[in-house]
Amino acid sequence: MKEPCAVDWLLKMKDAQVICLGSWPGSTKSHTEVESIEFLEGLANSKDLRFLSLQGGSRINKLPESIGNHRNLMILDLKECYNLEKLGEKVLRKLIIAWGANPNKGSKTKDSKNAKQPNK
């Protein structure tokens, strides 16, 4: 999927409450690798977004600050985003964030009030 198409597609998702990009839990066939984070700017119109999963996005090393602008976003799934180095403070403000899954040990889920940023 080319980024301009992805941005346009996401801009049309105005009423979406759940968006899952990346791998789907329990499925080995359904996986979309994210080339870069710029396409996430297309989520700007998704005012009702409550759950965003980028699980398994191995090429994601940071998230745009605009992710923190989603007032209704409650859960940000970053499991298996092993190269993620930076989360902006806006992103951490009020979310439940899941990250750092080890297939053999499960995953960690933190309320953002008690969450610590991954090491930079």
Automatic annotation (TrEMBL):
InterPro entries: LRR_dom_sf. It comes from the Eukaryota. This is Uncharacterized protein.
